[in-house]
Amino acid sequence: MAATLADVARRAGVSAATVSRVLNDNYPVAPATRQRVLRAVQELEYVINGNARALAASTSDLIGVLVNDVADPFFGLIASGVQSETGGDKLAVVCNTTGAPDRELNYLTLLQRQRAAGVVLSGSAIEEPEHIHAVTERLRRLAAAGTRIVLCGRPPLPGLAGGGDDAKVATLAFANRDGARELTEHLLALGHRRIGYVAGPADRTTTRHRLEGHRAALAARGMGAGSGRLIAHCAYDRASGRRATLALLDAEPGLTAIAAANDTMALGVCAALRERGLRIPDDVSVTGFDDLPFSADAFPGLTTVRLPLYQAGALAGRLLMGHESPPPDGLVTIPAEVVRRDSTAPPRRP
């Protein structure tokens, strides 16, 4: 039979209230008494009742990390960074939404029921007014109950930034527009003028922001008109990137460069080009986004935009643990950096 708090009290020769004070660390206890209690806990292998403790406190020892795809290294790096800062003091649970709006809302409801100490929402957000409202309301209730919240890789939500009751909400926004604009400027500087773009799902914030950066670079060169026909939307995975690239090549065989909205899609771009007998970068240059671990080892090495994903996750973890405070407006912008490798070169076609 599992040991109870009363068993610990008897073993240590103290009251149950004293045991509770030691375990919750919420009231001064003499050092010698504390040691007796902790020794009794260890000898009896007493396990604290997490649900009861959560009821007594405002929050539990649980941290929820919501990701779109648990198999995607993008989200794995963020989740790993979050967990690196918990120090084993919190139980970090990864919740795989598969990008489904209902699953995202369900997980937030479950985390509220568990009185989660912290919640990280990572990756692209769904741009649908009803869903945005539903997410905002759930996060507002979580924050009001004492849960710290970090939006990692998402834009701020209206009414959930800055001081007042919403001080527990912080936003770590990736510089997606700047990174995409600088990456397209790199291709333009090499001399490319027929640039295809493999974008993500049209209803996602990350898709829109990266596409806006790409279009801004084209517009600055007077090339914005007609660029829409060189854009293909698809899911953020390799197979979808391959299919989208084949469609772009059918529509515009003269492409000299293709920019993908993330590195995984860029692998699909490379596969499609090889299927068509095209060399990288001799015939077509390819770029990605995120600088995932495999990008440097791809052949050729992938030119991409580096986001410090692990470091962003670690910052989210520090904010959740209260080891670091967000700025007054709650917004931190995570910078992006273009990394030039061998998958891009000047065009060789006339």
Concise summary:
This protein has twelve helices and twelve strands. The protein has helices at 5-12, 16-24, 31-44, 50-56, 73-84, 101-113, 129-144, 176-190, 205-220, 238-251, 263-275, 309-321; strands at residues 62-67, 91-96, 118-122, 148-152, 169-174, 195-199, 231-233, 257-260, 285-287, 304-306, 331-334, 337-339.
Describe this structure in words.
The chain has helices spanning 5-12, 16-24, 31-44, 50-56, 73-84, 101-113, 129-144, 176-190, 205-220, 238-251, 263-275, 309-321, and strands at 62-67, 91-96, 118-122, 148-152, 169-174, 195-199, 231-233, 257-260, 285-287, 304-306, 331-334, 337-339. The model has no long low-confidence stretch (mean pLDDT 90). With 350 residues, the chain is of the alpha/beta class. The N and C termini lie far apart (80 Å). Helix content is 43%, strand content 15%. The protein contains twelve helices and twelve strands. The protein has three domains: 5-48, 434 Repressor (Amino-terminal Domain), CATH 1.10.260.40; 62-174 and 309-334, Response regulator (Rossmann fold, 3-Layer(aba) Sandwich), CATH 3.40.50.2300; 176-308, 3-Layer(aba) Sandwich (Rossmann fold), CATH 3.40.50. GO terms for molecular function: DNA-binding transcription factor activity; transcription cis-regulatory region binding. This is LacI family transcriptional regulator.
The CATH architecture of the largest domain can be given as 3-Layer(aba) Sandwich
Order of helices and strands: HHHHEHEHEHEEHEHEHEHEEHEE
Poorly predicted regions are none
| CATH class category name of the largest domain | Alpha Beta
The major β-sheet equals: 6 strands, parallel
What is the helix tally? 12
Annotated CATH homologous superfamily of the largest domain: Response regulator
Tell me the quaternary state: single chain
Give the termini separation: 80 Å
CATH fold call of the largest domain: Rossmann fold
User: Which structural class fits the helix and strand makeup?
Assistant: alpha/beta
Beta strand %: 15-25%
Radius of gyration: 25 Å
Number of domains: 3
